[in-house]
Amino acid sequence: MPEQEDRYPSAGAAGASRVSRGAEGAGSGGGGAGGEVDWEAERRRRRARFLRELAEARALRDRVQPRRAKAARLRHAMRMRTFRW
């Protein structure tokens, strides 16, 4: 499953890619900015995908365990009522 490998890269590979990107950016004067923009865009895409999956998992949990979801909603509403702005 290539998606699994993409979702959870090993720490060693991620660290090595960060180091190599940093070395490329430092070595080439003007070319480093394009690489940094690509890295940030990729990070935003991964973050957006993670947040979508997290929201989907929460929605699934709420459908499967409606009593727990209702209790969580009530606790959240109570916190919001007692919070001072």
TrEMBL record:
Residues 1-39 are annotated as: Disordered. Residues 24-35 have a biased composition (Gly residues). Residues 10-23 have a biased composition (Low complexity). This is Uncharacterized protein.
